[in-house]
Each structure stands twice: as C-alpha cells, then as structure tokens.
Design a protein that fits this description.
Largest sheet: 7 strands, mixed
CATH topology of the domain at 330-348 and 361-574: Rossmann fold
Distance between the termini: 19 Å
CATH superfamily of the domain at 330-348 and 361-574: Crotonobetainyl-coa:carnitine coa-transferase, domain 1
Strand content: 5-15%
Radius of gyration: 25 Å
Number of strands: 23
Structural class: alpha/beta
Number of helices: 25
CATH class of the domain at 330-348 and 361-574: Alpha Beta
Helix content: 25-40%
Strand order of the largest sheet: 9-17-16-15-10-11-14
Length: 693
C-alpha cells in the first residue's frame, strides 16, 4: 500500500448525510449541509484502501466516516455478516494484501447482547455522573458512547496497519461499546473506587446499595438545580446562567482573581463569592457546581451586555450559549475531526533555530506485538488536564512508550484527592505507566530538555495555548525540520476558529459556543450543558486517532506530519452524528428512560421498530395517543414496583431493562464489565482492543 499524499474522492453513492469527505486540491468537498473536512491540504494515509461493511449503528457510522475522511473508499451495498449487535467493518488494502477485520461488540464477552446506548449509559455510570447536578440520573441525549466507540475502533484499525508496516501480521481487531462507556467515566470510577467503603453485601458507606437506594426504598430527593430561585447557600444552583433580558450564557475563569473581580464589578463582595469559586473550580472533577443562589439572583438583575462588560473588565470570560443553527451559519462546513498534513504546507509563524538540519534520529527497531501494536514507538507528551493526557493514555495502552513533560515538582494534579499510594486516583486513570521528565519551559534549559526529547521521539504531543509552541521554539515546523520522522500533534480547544481570541478553550465554553449545550436540551426550553467533561474525553480520543493517522502516513513514506485536533472538532463529531440520526431517534431514545421505580431507577433497551407498542403491552397501558401523556403513564406505572421486579417482568415480555447505577463504585463490581476493568488500588479501564493475527 504505497504512500499517497493526495486524497482520493469517494465514489458517488453510499454517502451518508453530514459525512466527512477528503479534501480535493485543497478545497472542501461537502456531501450534505454543514459537512466537510479541513480546508488545508491534507494527508490521506488510507488512499487506496476499501472498506466493506454497513453501518448498522452509530458506532459503525462514526468509524466509516472517519476511515473515509482518511482517504478510504467505502464500497456501498456490501453487507458483512452480523451476529447480534456486533458491527463488522472489513478493511481491504490494495495490491491484494490480506484484509483487516474490525468488530465493534456490545461487550467483549457478550457479542450477541442487544443492549444499546441508553442501557450502557445506565450501567456504566454515565447517567449518574451526568445527573449529579440535578440529583437524579439523566441520560446524555446524544449517542455519546457510540461516538467514542467508533473513534476507538478507528484507532484499532490504524494501530493494526502501523504494526503491519513494522512486521506484525495482524488481521483482526475487536473492541466493545462497553469499553468505550467505561473509558468516558474512567476518572470518576478510579476516584470512587479509591475511597470505596463498600461492604461485602454491596452496601456503600452511606447505607446505599449498588443502585443508590437504601434498604427502605429510594432516598429522599435532595434540592434540585435551579436558576436562582433558592434562598439558602445550601441549595444547589449550577451553570448555565440567565440574564435579566433572557440570554443564557456560561462563565469561565482559570484562577480566582478574575472571579472575585467580576462579582465585585457587579456589586457582590460577600462570602458567597469565595464559596461559589470553590464549587465553580471543582466542577470539572465533581460534575456538579452547587453555587450560592445569590450569584444567580445577581446575574438575573442585569442585562447580558452589562454582564459581558463586567467580564471584560475583570478578565473573566462570558460566553453566550449559541444554537446549533447559529454555528452552522458561521461555520459551514463543520471542521473534520483532525487536520493532518505535512509541516510547512500552511504558513505558520515560528521561531527559527540556527544550525544545519540533522538527519532523523533512528531508534533501535523494537518489533510490535499483538498485545502492543505501538511497541517501539516513543511519544513525548507535554499536556495537562484531560484532553491531552487522554490522548497519551490511548497511545500508551497501544504499547507506545509515553514520556510526560511536567513542571518542576510534578503536575499539581498528582496530589488531587483521593490519593492511592502517592498519586491521585483521577490522575492515575489517565497517566498510568507513563515516564516523567521534569522541565521548566520558562527557562532556556527546560526548553532545550524538551527539544532533545522530541528529537529522539516519534510523536510530540502538546495542548498549549495557541502560539505557545512557537514561543518555546517547539512548533511543528521547527521540530520536524530537526527530526524529519516526527509526528507533531496539537490538541487545542478551538482549532483554527477565531474563538481563541475571545474565550478559553475549555470543555464547557466549547459546549456553549458550538451549540452542543442547546442540542442536549432534550426537549427543554433552555440549554442543558453537561458538567461531565464529554468534549475533553472525546477530544482526547480524537487527538490519539489523529496521531495514529500521522504515524501511518509517516510509515508509508509520507515524511513528518502535523496533526491538529480540538474540542470544537469533537463537538462536530457529535453534531454530525445527531444530524444523521434524524428527528425520530431522540424521540425513540426518550422512551428508554431512565425511569424511577419504587426502589431504584431502570433504563430500557427498546427495538427501533415496534418498541413503544411492546412496552405498552408489557405495562398494560394504551399504545397510542399523544406522547407526553403516554410517557407520563409509563413513568407512573413503573413507580409502583421496585427496579429489580420490573427488570424480571419486562424481560419475560421481551424487553431488556437494566439497573441505573447511581453508586459509581458499584460499576466496578458489575459482572457485565469483568473483561473491561483491571482492579488494584482503584479500578482502571483495561485497553479497549484485542488484536489477533
């Protein structure tokens, strides 16, 4: 399979709406509204490859989109055998090389399971985390697990192809949607199992069971999230925020000084300000932000222009929550998941370093294995928080040697509670088994240390703010000129959009500006962003996917590669998938729950055809009529008996129902996830692929 740096155009037919197609002659090609790849000239490492298979579900649809964006040709109308809910894709290299089969299973050891997106969110704890702000489990109204599973499948395909070029004859990859689900909550899972006081009978330290209920039924409901109507500091009132003139918006501050100055500019200097800062800054790890209601009430007495002006004076970012339509009007087509190109094909200002261009460093050949397809690959990772470390974590799980660059004294997040041994459990979930080199990038010596590491590496990965790499002399053009075998990857917040000049590139700001917060409204008349870091996690997975594409292009003779990904492009992946599903899919998912019962919550897995009628028959209620009253009838009926009773009864009627896990540590004890987890001082997610010859 020769290296081809000019993408091929997919053939007519078989195109999915909102699909990503390769660029041709530097121009975006669009197959539907709001679709399209990066406009920069791009590398297509899968040019000449054909993919057989039908996207039977959203995970396969995402995988197909991304494989085609890398230059592969999809042969429509060819349906590979399917068993149960497993999705199959067959990658056929040119020149008669052996095919590579990728299987996306529901669970590693249960390929025939029919449990879908809603059930996996319930079982793996996503509903629990997403519902913390409202004190009740809540489904992410997106095919989020499926999108992550599709990206992970493409990672497996690319890693296997890289291993083939380096001598490992891999022929099959298996991954599972359950693995993807657990990877999205890996930090929460590690933290809660590190402090788990669970008794042998399964009850937690507060007397709750694995389903979050006590021995006498569900716990009394706690105060729910509001918009400033509470009266006491103990009432939970979290983001987003609403101005007097009806504008929904988000706030962001990365240190306490702008936060204090912002509220002072609005006339508020009481104890609610430091109390609010503590809740606000911890929302990334806690997935909840119990802000004092006075903060909401203060904002509710001001117009948005006044609030934005106070933010500008204090240095605190104020971002109006845009609709998806507003984003489409400004950004059409939406960006592809990554920009992949040879350095220097797009002008970038950078600092030149004097001296002759050295030959690329040649590492001793370390052959890959089926368990470690990236064995022998070295990655230098200069990242913090979640997005960048997740990308490095994926590469490490695939067998790469990952060297983290940390400031003198180590990354401050290493000490974040809870701690197992001498390291934060949350930090360990994304940084296990990485080597560490400490370097102060504010000094010439520190920058020289990192440069020397990059000159002996295959990949340099960073998530610095735009322009920082150039200031440090560690940008793509400079490093790739010194190491022509390097893949230089930047995982940013906004990518090439103009937003970096206005807002910090954090998960919650990108949710607001991309329109994703409104897409998650789930029928409400207000935006409902999640405090679960959905874009950081998916953005990290996409960054690793881009790095693997760059490594494959390099192995095929394409030379050094520059890879750019962003949280905004992660939002685009979800938005494309939602547009492809059509208007009926959210309505169908709404019938799957979660539902509160007399004890605990359940979620359902209903067939797309006839699922609602099947449910009505099982519950002995009418099957036709307006949807809101019917759903209310379903909810009322399910309240009459405990969760486990309903699970058994619905199962006898052909409906799969599962318990909604509200005690995250119970996820680690669920036999369904036995093959997905590793247990030690805390529960960690196992590599989500299995490679076979």
């Amino acid at each position: 399979m020769p290296a081809v740096l000019v993408p091929r155009v997919p053939p007519p037919g078989g195109e999915r709406r909102m699909n990503v197609a390769p660029a041709v002659d530097g121009r975006a090609r669009t197959h539907g509204p709001h679709a399209g790849p990066p406009t920069a000239p791009s590398t297509a490492p899968l040019a000449g490859v054909t993919v057989d298979g039908t996207a039977a579900g959203p995970a396969g649809a995402v995988a197909l989109d991304h494989l085609r964006a890398l230059g592969a040709r999809h042969r429509p109308g060819v349906r590979t055998p399917r068993h149960g809910a497993t999705e199959h894709l067959t990658v056929l290299p040119e020149d008669g090389l052996p095919p590579l089969v990728c299987e996306i299973l529901p669970f590693p050891d249960a390929p025939g399971s029919r449990l879908g997106e809603t059930a996996l969110q319930a079982m793996a704890g996503l509903m629990a985390v997403n519902g913390r702000q409202g004190n009740a489990p809540r489904r992410l109204p997106l095919d989020y697990v499926s999108a992550c599973a599709g990206v992970i499948a493409v990672q497996g395909v690319l890693a296997a192809l890289i291993a083939r070029t380096r001598g490992a004859p891999l022929g099959r990859i298996r991954t599972a949607r359950s693995s993807a689900a657990l990877l999205t909550v890996s930090q929460y899972l590690a933290a809660e199992t590190a402090t788990d006081g669970t008794a042998p009978d399964g009850t937690g330290p507060d007397g709750t069971g694995p389903d979050g209920t006590g021995p006498d039924g569900p716990p009394a409901p706690r105060p729910t999230t509001g918009t400033g109507t509470g009266t006491g500091i103990g009432t939970e009132t979290g983001p987003p925020f609403l101005s007097r003139d009806g504008v929904w918006f988000e706030l962001e501050a990365l240190d306490g000084t702008p936060w204090r100055d912002f509220w002072a500019a609005l006339g508020l200097r009481g104890r609610e300000v430091p109390l609010g800062w503590r809740a606000f800054v911890n929302r990334y790890s806690a997935a909840t932000a119990p802000l004092p209601p006075l903060l909401h009430r203060t904002l509710g007495t001001r117009d948005f222009t006044d609030i934005a002006a106070a933010g500008a004076r204090s240095g605190l970012s104020v971002c109006r929550i845009r609709t998806t339509a507003e984003r489409y009007a400004e950004e059409e087509p939406l960006p592809a998941p990554w920009s992949l190109r040879a350095p220097g094909t797009e002008h970038t200002a950078h600092t030149k370093h004097p001296g002759s261009r050295p030959a690329p460093w040649s590492a001793p050949h370390v052959p890959p294995t089926a368990g470690q397809p990236l064995r022998g690959i070295t990655v230098v990772e200069a990242t913090r928080r979640i997005q960048g470390p997740m990308a490095g974590h994926v590469l490490q799980m695939l067998g790469a040697h990952v060297v983290r660059v940390e400031p003198p004294g180590g990354d401050p997040q290493r000490g974040a509670e809870p701690v197992v041994g001498d390291c934060s459990a949350r930090f360990l979930a994304l940084n296990e088994a990485k080597s560490v080199v400490e370097a102060d990038l504010k000094t010439a010596e520190g920058r020289r240390t990192v440069r020397e590491l990059a000159l002996r590496a295959d990949v340099f990965l960073h998530n610095w703010a735009p322009g920082k790499a150039e200031v440090f002399g560690l940008d793509a053009e400079t490093l790739c000129a010194a190491n022509p075998a390097l893949v230089h990857a930047h995982a940013s917040g906004w990518g090439p959009s103009s937003a970096p000049d206005l807002f910090p590139g954090t998960d919650f700001m990108v949710q607001a500006r991309s329109g994703l917060a409104w897409e998650m409204a789930d029928g409400a008349d207000r935006p409902r962003p999640t405090l679960m870091t959905v874009l950081d996690i998916l953005g990290g997975l996409i960054s690793a996917e881009g790095v693997l594409a760059g490594l494959l292009a390099r192995e095929l003779g394409g030379g050094p590669q520059r890879v750019d990904t962003s949280l905004l492009s992660a939002a685009s992946v979800l938005q494309r998938l939602e547009a492809d599903r059509g208007p009926s899919a959210p309505a169908h998912a709404a019938w799957e729950g979660p539902y509160r019962t007399a004890k605990g919550h359940i979620a359902l897995s209903l067939p797309a055809a006839g699922g609602r009628r099947l449910l009505a028959t099982a519950l002995n209620i009418p099957a036709t009529g307006p949807q809101p009253p019917l759903r209310a009838t379903v909810a009322a009926r399910l309240l009459t008996r405990p969760a486990r009773s309903w699970i058994e009864d619905l199962g006898r009627n052909g409906i799969e129902a599962v318990l909604v896990q509200q005690h995250i540590s119970a996820v680690a004890r669920d036999p369904a996830f036995r093959a997905d987890l590793r247990h030690g001082a805390c529960a960690l997610v196992a590599p989500p692929w299995r490679f076979l010859s």
